[in-house]
Design a protein that fits this description.
GO terms for molecular function: cullin family protein binding. With 559 residues, the chain is mostly helical. It contains 15 helices and no strands.
């Protein structure tokens, strides 16, 4: 079972379903994971069949939308041929056995690729089949240069020339067709005349008619495209004439066509050479761009090196100027003597300043050392005082808590003492204790009965809640199915949803009222307890103790 669950989960992940990362069995799939896996399988099946219907891939957060999405998914799976009972509750409240059966059915229903279509079988093959079909179509498509793969807009003059050439080519083709039709009619009439006269054969072929002026002008000015069109149509239209005329001499039109074909071939060869030259130029341009990019990339480093070299040059120039000035001064004996004298004066001044600084620095260092010692002592004293203050505060809090507890206990005992009757015998106390024990037993029995009634009431409430939820779900499903076609059912569905929402708000209101009543009862009990306490005396004692503690803190702070 574990191996089958592993294979099942791997297949579901291959279809694109988002499953928990640590899931190892169908039992670990929650409602959201089960819904996503089933939706992914159904979408893959629809995609393979070419259907446009796609289901939600994730479980919505809204309860109403979630119910409708689960119902739609159940209907889609049932339409695939799932024989067992299936509804929205199978997705919202999944069961391990039913979920495993449902997932196995969907995995078996996934499209499979045969051995000729794919080397490796996959669970969902619709997308892969479409990709392979697209690749096969692209493989059989004719190759075109990248510059010719898209439509390019011609400039207006070129577009006008192309349109004029196309018009001339169409006119030439029409005239050529009329010429051949006229030739066929002449041949047919001559054949009929010869058959009527009883002569055999066709005799000498009639001279070819001269080409029309419009066709000649169009062929002269139409360019390579028009000549190529005329040549293709001429080859198709000259077949009957060749059969009729036999092996006659080459006409002027054929010679013109042959010349145009040769020109066209020459232009094609020239175009191929230009294309090769363009490719070479393009390669050279790419190489130049690459070299320029490399130079641009190396430019910042070169500029940095140049800046460093300039800075070093300026520093060397300054050093050279100083040294050159020093060499010039060395040649002058008066300047050298003056330099030595000033050097000695500077040394004497530095020695005097050093002695004065040491004389001034010694008392300052001593005073600084004393101040640091005093500061350290004050820090230690402050730390000790803070620690002592914290200890005193903790002891004060403990004393206050003890005083409060003792005051409460004293007040309670005093109240009980005041309530105790005076001068009663021991037997009366014993009798009262026995009555209290009996009343406690009765109260215990009553409490057990109340608890039993509460449990039964809770069971009835739970049963009624489950019945209500099932009834609402069934009614919601029935009305929602009918609401698709009927306006009254839509209004009924809205009323049902509003009624369910109102009952929910009513239940929450009743629960809040009960909580408020319990809170009022607790507050009343606490109020009664506080009223029984003798807090005035405790407050006076606490004030006296607090005053004494403040005086002690003031004395400690003064010390």
């Amino acid at each position: 079972m574990a191996n089958s669950d592993d294979i099942l989960l791997i297949t579901l992940r291959q279809t694109g379903a988002e499953l928990p990362s640590g899931a190892t069995s169908v039992r670990e799939l929650d409602a959201a994971a089960l819904f996503g896996a089933c939706a992914a399988c159904v979408n893959a099946i629809h995609e393979a069949r070419g259907e446009e219907q796609r289901l939600l891939s994730a479980l919505p957060a809204n309860p109403g939308v979630r119910f409708r999405a689960c119902t739609q998914l159940a209907a889609a799976i049932a339409s695939l041929g799932y024989a067992e009972e299936l509804g929205f509750n199978h997705f919202l409240y999944p069961n391990e056995a039913e979920s495993r059966s449902l997932l196995l059915f969907l995995v078996d229903a996934l499209p499979k690729l045969d051995a000729t279509a794919a080397d490796v079988p996959t669970a969902g093959g619709g997308a892969m089949a479409q990709i392979r079909a697209a690749l096969q179509q692209w493989r059989h498509a004719p190759w075109l240069p990248p510059e010719w793969s898209g439509k390019r807009a011609l400039p207006p003059p070129a577009a006008a020339r192309v349109r004029a050439a196309l018009r001339r080519a169409a006119l030439a083709a029409a005239l050529k067709a009329e010429q051949h039709a006229e030739l066929e009619r002449r041949l047919a009439r001559r054949g009929e005349a010869e058959e009527a006269s009883g002569e055999g054969g066709f005799g000498a072929p009639p001279p070819p008619p001269p080409p029309p002026p419009a066709a000649a002008a169009g062929g002269a000015r139409g360019g390579a495209f028009a000549h190529q069109t005329l040549f293709a149509e001429g080859k198709e239209g000259d077949a009957p004439g060749e059969k009729a005329g036999g092996e006659g001499a080459e006409s002027g039109v054929e010679r013109a066509e042959r010349v145009e074909v040769e020109k066209l071939r020459a232009r094609r060869a020239e175009l191929a050479e230009l294309e090769a030259a363009r490719e070479e130029g393009k390669a050279a341009l790419e190489a130049a761009k690459a070299a320029m990019a490399a130079l641009e990339a190396a430019r910042p480093a070169a500029e940095a090196r140049l800046a460093a070299a300039e800075a070093e040059t300026q520093a060397l120039q300054r050093t050279h100027a100083v040294r050159q000035k020093a060499l010039q001064l060395l040649a002058d004996e008066a300047a050298a003597a003056q330099m030595v004298e000033r050097t000695e004066q500077k040394k004497a001044q530095l020695a005097q300043l050093k002695a004065d600084c040491e004389a001034e620095q010694a008392p300052l260092d001593e005073e600084l050392r004393k101040l640091e010692q005093a500061l350290q002592a004050r820090r230690e004293g402050a730390t000790a005082k803070i620690r002592l203050m914290r200890e005193l505060q903790a002891s004060m809090r403990a004393m206050v808590e003890q005083l409060q507890l003792r005051d409460e206990m004293s007040a309670r005992l005093s109240l009980e003492l005041e309530r105790q009757p005076k001068g009663q015998s021991r037997s009366s106390y014993t009798r009262r204790i026995m009555d209290i024990v009996k009343s406690l037993r009765k109260q215990k029995v009553d409490i057990e009965k109340i608890l039993t009634d509460v449990r039964e009431s809770q069971k009835e409430v739970n049963s009624a809640s489950e019945t209500l939820s099932r009834s609402f779900a069934a009614a919601d499903e029935i009305i929602y199915r009918a609401a698709v076609h009927e306006e009254a059912s839509k209004q009924c569905y809205k009323g049902l949803a509003k009624l369910h929402e109102t009952f929910g708000l009513l239940g929450e209101s009743v629960q809040e009222i009960g909580n408020v009543r319990n809170a009022i009862r607790d507050l009343q009990t606490k109020t009664d307890e506080l009223a029984l306490r003798n807090t005035a005396e405790a407050i006076e004692r606490m004030g006296a103790d607090l005053k004494e503690l403040k005086e002690q803190n003031a004395k400690l702070s003064a010390q």
